[in-house]
Amino acid sequence: MQNTAPLPTTTTASKMQPFNNSLFGSFDDPLLNARAAALADIDVKNVPQLTNPLMRPHDMFSYSNYFTGIPDTSAATNIYQGLPSSSEPFDASVVVPTSSEDQMTPLQQVMAMQTYGAPPQFQYNMSHMTQHFTTSSLSTSNNITRYPIAPPTSELETDPRQLETFAEHFKQRRIKLGVTQADVGKALAHLKMPGVGSLSQSTICRFESLTLSHNNMVALKPILHSWLEKAEEAMKQKDTIGDINGILPNTDKKRKRTSIAAPEKRELEQFFKQQPRPSGERIASIADRLDLKKNVVRVWFCNQRQKQKRDFRSQFRARSAAAVMGPRVMPVVAGNGSNNNLKQGQGPYNGLPGFFD
DNA sequence: ATGCATGAGCT
DNA sequence: GCTCATGCATA
């Protein structure tokens, strides 16, 4: 509504950490196969079907959207081949959060992200993946990780219920093991899986709460599964858990974080209801009206759309709703050998009416 | 747990 | 300028 109050937004700054990742080169983790057993004790829930007006034909469907009841076995979601192995010599330190002690040069990170050094069985099937699985947020931060290994084979690997089941199981076990989400994230780098670095607490949290896109869930599952197995082992032969290294000063730069005031936020939400995808001019208009920076408004809408997709299921699940909808259109990737067949959906919006300017 | 932000790749 | 994966900062 009105922004008589102080400032519509406020920003704060805080520390930014430098690179602290390890993992590179060595990947002693043979792809393992599965874990059906590990998940056997979990129950599978039924998921209602639904549709998300925000979804567009070429959008990479989110985990939430996956729950449309429409089975999907398209290659687009099959990112992994197998699961991380657990049949290798166990190294307690792997699951022990040793804080940020790992160092990796930007170049190494880049390389680690690429599947370049991985053997064939570890590589992605380029024609079956989307950009994000090759080189997502490469320089976003000090942590690498992002998708490694091969594409998934079985449907079990991408089955939403399986993923959900695993996520729950994972969380329960993690807690049992007394490991925090942040610890898990850091420990991942120790798995030394090709292309796998550490992850943030945020991501682990989102994985557990299923607030990630389906592809993201699928990609992370084998990695977290691998960690869990090692962690379970560590639990057993617990003793020499050398939680070595540890301390690392956080003396660095800062990053601002805008805080949009409630009134402005309420208006933004109203605008969003009217049109989730405002034009640049529209955004400028809104920004001007709310006395916010245009970029802040733009990003807000981007995040809102992303959030809507992720949260969609949680908003409607556990409900009998069975609004069967038309078949979901998956991005068809032409494996033409070209080096740019990792399309990302951005086709024209064909959702519900009224969402265009 | 989640809001705001970044950056890659793509249109 | 968009989507997506992800992260820092913070409520």
Automatic annotation (TrEMBL):
One of its GO terms (molecular function) is RNA polymerase II transcription regulatory region sequence-specific DNA binding. PROSITE patterns: HOMEOBOX_1 (PS00027), HOMEOBOX_2 (PS50071), POU_1 (PS00035), POU_2 (PS00465), POU_3 (PS51179). Residues 251-311 form the Homeobox domain. Residues 253-312 bind DNA. Pfam families: Homeodomain, Pou. Its main location: nucleus. Keywords: DNA-binding, Homeobox, Nucleus, Olfaction, Sensory transduction, Transcription, Transcription regulation. Residues 338-357 are annotated as: Disordered. It is found in: Nucleus. Residues 155-232 form the POU-specific domain. One of its GO terms (cellular component) is RNA polymerase II transcription regulator complex. It comes from the Eukaryota. GO terms for biological process: mechanosensory behavior; neuron development; neuron fate specification; sensory perception of smell. Belongs to the POU transcription factor family. Class-4 subfamily. PANTHER family: INHIBITORY POU PROTEIN, POU DOMAIN. This is POU domain protein. It comes from Caenorhabditis briggsae.
